[in-house]
Structure formats: C-alpha cells, structure tokens
Design goal:
By secondary structure, the protein is α+β, with helices and mostly antiparallel strands. It has helices at residues 2-11, 28-33, 51-61; strands spanning 40-45, 67-72. The chain has one domain. The protein has a two-stranded parallel ribbon.
C-alpha cells in the first residue's frame, strides 16, 4: 500500500491526498499511513480527549513529520463577541450610533 501511494505522489506532485483515518491509538491502519504522510493533523475533542492519550498519539507519530492539532467541539461561553454576522460587543447589545 505504501509503495502505491508513494508512486502516485511521485507522479502527481501538485496534488494533495488526505487520509481520514481512525484514531492512531485504536488501530494499526492509521499507523500504517504514517510512512507516506507528509504532514499529520490530529483532531482533539474538547473536554473529552485526555491529555495523556493526546501525548501518546503525538509520541506514536514522532518528531519527523510536521504535526498540527485541531481542537474540535469547543463550547463557546458568554463572552464579548466580534464577528461579521453578529453585532459587535457583548451578547444582546447593539452599537450606538
């Protein structure tokens, strides 16, 4: 499998191939993709993913590939807002003017 992906990527250098794999600590499938991955993105579920498991997953990936983390499903709290589709300032207030 690794040689197949490596050959494809050699022939299509301008392409990106994204593998959506199971969690790296749960299956061998995710680890088998590491040799052909140029970069790794780890998705971490806010409030549920335990820090030791995230660190174990990062350890399994190693330090020889660029690795990014995405914090997913983070609950927003009632804080001042700033955005294109919402009023500016704390929730429920309208700009004066």
């Amino acid at each position: 499998m690794q040689s197949l992906f490596a050959e494809y990527l050699d022939d299509h250098r301008s392409c990106f191939v994204i593998f959506d794999s199971p969690p790296i600590l749960m299956t061998a499938e995710a680890r088998s993709l590491l040799p052909v991955a140029g970069q790794v993105v780890v998705v971490v579920k806010a409030g549920e993913s335990q820090k030791p498991l995230v660190l174990d997953a990062l350890g399994a990936i190693g330090n020889n590939k660029p690795t990014s983390l995405i914090l997913n499903q983070l609950r927003a709290v009632n804080e001042p807002r700033y955005g294109y589709y919402h009023p500016y300032g704390p929730a429920g207030t309208q700009p004066q003017g």
